[in-house]
């Protein structure tokens, strides 16, 4: 049952800025495993030639994200309730899209385990006396303690701090690169905009495409953050009046600005990561795995800023990876109760039931992630496999987005030709790239 607190949307950009927030949580999730591990590994393996993959990955998915955010504001429903209503076959009274999202997200335990492992390796390099296994347990426990209280404001503020800190450090490193032997030219960067891709780099490229920018997880998660920020609550239920229509348009504009600011942030950082990896690490044979991976990536910063910056890099790497795990747990502890409710495995009748479910999953998932990492101990491979799984989930997300756009078209809330163009460019690009990559890998 919805409770609404109607509020007219802000009328100026300055006032709109005060209502931003969902995009910062999204950026905390994005600026982490995808950028630090997948992006730099792609740059190390392919050089500048695959730069276009990263830019396309960051830019084209936003159209789908905006449609999900718009639907969250208009409907006020949990995202899996909306998934359960789309067209398609049903399995035991639940829509196929809910089942597939449940299965694919569960498989991504592997990816988040790799993220925990990367953070644990960085933490143990900062504190050498701590075994990596102990560091991973500490990380799991600390994240559980943060999330089980289920405070949106706390999640939002921590996300902002983490994103700002590592963004500043990474951009500084890129600037200093031009004062080292690893400096690169504009011509080299332009070779990465020719839409070529070496066959041997395909797996890393598809994994990077699935996980960088707004991945399938972040698109779904964005609906929760938009609603918890209050956009849907402020809009109110659709009573068919012109007042509601104006409120909806106003809060959708705020959401668009929020998504645009987030896109600028994570695209800038992702591009910087890629260029650093391509300039410093490309040409090095036998990219390390396992516990040596973070130390290998640290070469980016020690080569550009000097050996004294190894410790700041490790701090930054830890923050980036920790922020991703932090934001993922905040999202999963909301998503899984939502999915289980729609699958009729766990009835979530009210906010009290929701809070109990969040607490359970806040402790369960870190335990599973830590165990997965300690068993496999291959964070880079784990993250990239998760990216490939994410590319499959992205196709589900695209299908649902088309359904949302069709359903909401009659409400006269479309932003015009530009909005339509961005959306359909996103759809076509994602379907072509994800399908091609999955076909080649299979």
Major sheet details: 2 strands, antiparallel
How many helical stretches?
20
So what's the overall shape? globular
Count of structural domains: 1
Q: Within the largest sheet, what's the order of strands?
A: 1-2
CATH class: Mainly Alpha
Strand fraction: under 5%
Number of strands: 2
List the helices and strands and how they pair.
Layout: H1 13-17, H2 22-30, H3 33-46, H4 51-60, H5 62-75, H6 79-83, E1 90-91, E2 94-95, H7 96-107, H8 109-126, H9 132-147, H10 152-177, H11 186-190, H12 202-211, H13 216-229, H14 231-235, H15 242-281, H16 293-305, H17 310-342, H18 351-376, H19 379-408, H20 417-441
Antiparallel strand pairs: 1-2
Which descriptors apply to this entry?
442 residues; Hydantoin permease; mainly alpha
Word description of this protein:
The chain is mostly helical. The protein has 20 helices and two strands. It has a single domain, classed as Hydantoin permease. The protein has a two-stranded antiparallel sheet with strand order 1-2. The longest helix has 40 residues.
Summarize the structure.
The protein is mainly α and 442 residues long. The chain is built from 20 helices and 2 strands.
């Amino acid at each position: 049952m919805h409770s609404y607190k109607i509020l007219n949307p802000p009328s100026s950009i300055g006032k709109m800025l005060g209502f931003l927030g969902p995009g910062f949580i999204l950026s905390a999730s994005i600026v982490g495993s995808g950028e630090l591990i997948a992006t730099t590994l792609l740059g190390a393996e392919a050089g500048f030639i695959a730069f276009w993959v990263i830019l396309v990955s960051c830019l084209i998915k936003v159209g789908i994200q905006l449609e999900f955010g718009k639907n969250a504001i208009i409907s006020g429903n949990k995202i899996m309730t909306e998934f359960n209503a789309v067209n398609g076959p049903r399995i035991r009274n639940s829509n196929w899209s809910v089942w597939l999202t449940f299965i694919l997200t569960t498989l991504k335990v592997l990816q988040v385990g790799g993220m925990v492992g990367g953070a644990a390796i960085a933490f143990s390099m900062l504190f050498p006396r701590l075994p990596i296994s102990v560091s991973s347990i500490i990380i799991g426990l600390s994240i559980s303690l943060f999330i089980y209280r289920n405070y949106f404001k706390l999640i939002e503020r921590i996300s902002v701090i983490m994103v700002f800190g590592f963004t500043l450090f990474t951009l500084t490193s890129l600037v200093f690169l031009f004062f080292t032997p690893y400096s690169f030219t504009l011509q080299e960067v332009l070779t990465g905009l020719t839409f070529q891709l070496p066959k041997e780099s395909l797996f890393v490229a598809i994994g990077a495409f699935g996980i960088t920018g707004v991945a399938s997880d972040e698109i779904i998660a964005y609906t929760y953050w938009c609603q918890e920020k209050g956009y849907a609550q402020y809009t109110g239920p659709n009573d068919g009046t012109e007042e509601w229509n104006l409120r909806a348009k106003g809060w959708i504009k705020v959401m668009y600005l929020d998504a645009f600011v987030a896109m600028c942030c994570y695209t800038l950082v992702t591009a910087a990561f890629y260029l650093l990896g391509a300039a410093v690490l490309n040409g090095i044979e036998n990219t390390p795995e396992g516990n040596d991976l973070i130390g290998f990536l640290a070469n980016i910063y020690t080569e550009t800023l000097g050996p004294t910056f190894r410790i700041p890099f490790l701090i930054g790497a830890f923050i980036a990876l920790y922020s991703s795990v932090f934001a993922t747990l905040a999202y999963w502890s909301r998503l899984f109760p939502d999915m289980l409710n729609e699958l009729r495995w766990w009835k979530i009748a009210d906010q009290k039931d929701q809070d109990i479910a969040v607490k359970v999953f806040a402790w369960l998932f870190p335990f599973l992630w830590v165990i997965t990492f300690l068993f496999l101990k291959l964070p880079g491979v784990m993250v990239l496999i998760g990216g490939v799984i994410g590319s499959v989930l992205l196709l589900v997300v695209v299908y649902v987005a088309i359904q949302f756009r069709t359903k909401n078209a009659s409400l006269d809330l479309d932003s015009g030709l530009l909005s339509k163009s961005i959306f359909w460019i996103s759809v076509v690009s994602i379907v072509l790239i994800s399908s091609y990559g999955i076909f080649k890998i299979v």
